[in-house]
Amino acid sequence: MTPTSPQPPPTAMTRRAFLGAAAALGLGLALSPSGLGAAGAEIRLPPLPWPEDALEPVISARTIGFHYGKHHAGYVETTRRLIAGTPYAQMPLEQIIRETAGRAGQEAIFNNAAQVWNHTFYWHSLSPRGGGRPPARLLARIEASFGSLESCLQELARAAVSQFASGWAWLVEEQGRLRAVNTPNAETPLTRGQRPLLTIDVWEHAYYLDYQNRRADHVAAVLDKLIHWEFAAANLEG
Length: 238
Ligand code: MN
What we know:
It is a single chain. The protein has nine helices and three strands; from the N terminus they run ααααααβββααα. By secondary structure, the protein is mostly helical. It folds into two domains: 13-124, Helix Hairpins; 136-237, Iron/manganese superoxide dismutase, C-terminal domain (minor pseudopilin epsh fold, 3-Layer(bab) Sandwich). Helix 2 (61-83) runs antiparallel to helix 4 (107-125), helix 5 packs across helix 6 (149-162) and helix 6 runs antiparallel to helix 8. The longest helix has 23 residues, at 61-83. It binds manganese (II) ion. Manganese (II) ion (MN) binds next to helix 2.
């Protein structure tokens, strides 16, 4: 496998499950082989890209078990229930998100669908072999936009820690520049003209079992040990 490939699927994963995981992203990003994400894509819980205990000690298997098995799974089930019998049932996930964003009366569908997408993207933003230095192509872009990798990491940490209450920190590409941004609740750069490269979940359920109120410590450990620069590099435009 090349350095920019997504994590290999677990051996037990069927081709159908893998296609579901890729379609769930539906973006033309690193996880989505071309041709997927067409109309009629089913919303389903994609498999994790690593075993539940693979991110220990930074993120415990218990946290992943609840986060993936209860929270992410819950967003999938709620989305499926809410879109059943509506035109959204025929749309790929990303289209549902774009069409419900900011639309009165569609908040529940938007929130659940965006949380499905955000979590799938989040799992792939983490790797047991993460941290360290980004691939050269991404590092050059980081240095052009932030001045240095250290500044980029500081900006990402600031975006994560300063997000009041629930939300997400992101590295995004916008008009040729990389930026560290945050979004509240389920909101996503997809509807803001930004291309997501990686994300960190800063809802309390992402870290409370392991770090309680110490969000900054959790974010620092994630950036140091887990952040998957190869995934971010593969999501760069062009
Ligand atoms: Mn979460």
